């Protein structure tokens, strides 16, 4: 890159020097003076070609499904309830491919029960996962960048949840429903096939005394993520005041990787993530 820019600048400098000599020493040129002026007026200095920097994704590995289920945690469900009319029905559109980073996973769509991302990799121990966790390669690569940036700013993050299989989500929702009732559980936990965690690109962050609560938004971790996560391709899925749109309570700890360019576009749009994804092409069976 540096060599290419230096070469272009040297070429431009030599061209300008030659034109300067022609103007100072008209006897050295056979071109009419007016034509020389025309050439100078039409001359444009070559621009510097900026070559894009390509980041290599980590090589995918075959990782077995985690043996440990997700944490069974109590969550803050103090906001106003929304009537549960979104029961899973066979008629819900089935997502063709969960590997699509912009796949619309909601209470009105379904991931296949046998969908498992093909490039899952283990979340490293220095990120302080609550148990053995996995993420897709691209999401994990960008999570590492996010993690390092937060640490540089003095913010310590813990990973509380990452990829969950269909069966793990089924058990988790059943447990919440037994303890809180199905209607309340449906406000803060997805039914199987409707969880963004099954995509392998979604992370629940923690590292505070108020993890999995709305109060997380007021912690240094929550504030840093709200301000900076999108730079690394992560979007907050369930913002405050949007339960009537997303179907879920405010979850300032829940972020989904959608790609850096897409996250920037989402951030500018001001939409809830589900609204942004609905504006993108979707593919169903």
Provide a descriptive summary of the structure in words:
The protein is of the alpha+beta class. It folds into 2 domains: 2-42; 120-278, 2-Layer Sandwich (Muramoyl-pentapeptide Carboxypeptidase, domain 2), CATH 3.30.1380.10. 35% of the residues lie in helices and 8% in strands. It has helices spanning 2-24, 33-42, 137-152, 166-180, 182-188, 220-228, 243-246, 260-269, 273-278; strands at residues 120-122, 134-136, 158-161, 202-206, 234-236, 254-257. The strands form 2 sheets. A 4-stranded antiparallel β-sheet has the order 3-4-6-5. Strands 1-2 form a two-stranded antiparallel ribbon. The longest helix has 23 residues, at 2-24. It is globular and about 50 Å long. The two termini are 45 Å apart.
């Amino acid at each position: 890159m540096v060599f290419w820019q230096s070469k272009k600048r040297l070429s431009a400098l030599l061209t300008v020097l030659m034109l300067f000599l022609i103007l100072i020493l008209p006897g050295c040129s056979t071109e009419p003076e007016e034509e020389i002026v025309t050439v100078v007026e039409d001359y444009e200095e070559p621009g510097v070609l900026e070559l894009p920097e390509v980041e290599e994704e980590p090589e995918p590995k075959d990782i077995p499904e985690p043996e440990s289920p997700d944490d069974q945690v109590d969550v803050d469900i103090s906001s106003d309830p929304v009537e549960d009319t979104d029961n899973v029905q066979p008629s819900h559109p089935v997502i063709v491919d969960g590997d699509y980073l912009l796949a619309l996973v909601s209470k009105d769509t379904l991931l296949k029960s046998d969908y498992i991302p093909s490039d899952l990799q283990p979340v490293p121990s220095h990120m302080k996962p609550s148990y053995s966790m996995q993420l897709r390669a691209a999401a994990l690569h960008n999570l590492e960048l996010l993690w390092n940036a937060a640490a540089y700013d003095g913010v310590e993050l813990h990973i509380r949840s990452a990829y969950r299989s269909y069966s793990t989500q089924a058990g988790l929702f059943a447990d919440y429903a037994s303890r809180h009732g199905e209607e309340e559980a449906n406000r803060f936990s997805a039914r199987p096939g409707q969880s963004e965690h099954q995509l392998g690109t979604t992370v629940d962050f923690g590292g505070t005394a108020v993890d999995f609560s709305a109060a997380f938004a007021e912690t240094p971790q929550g504030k840093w993520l709200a301000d900076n996560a999108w730079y690394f391709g992560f979007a907050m899925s369930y913002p405050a005041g949007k339960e009537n749109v997303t179907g879920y309570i405010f979850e300032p700890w829940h972020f989904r990787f959608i790609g850096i360019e897409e996250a920037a576009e989402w951030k500018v749009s001001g939409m809830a993530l589900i609204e942004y994804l609905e504006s993108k092409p979707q593919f169903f069976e």
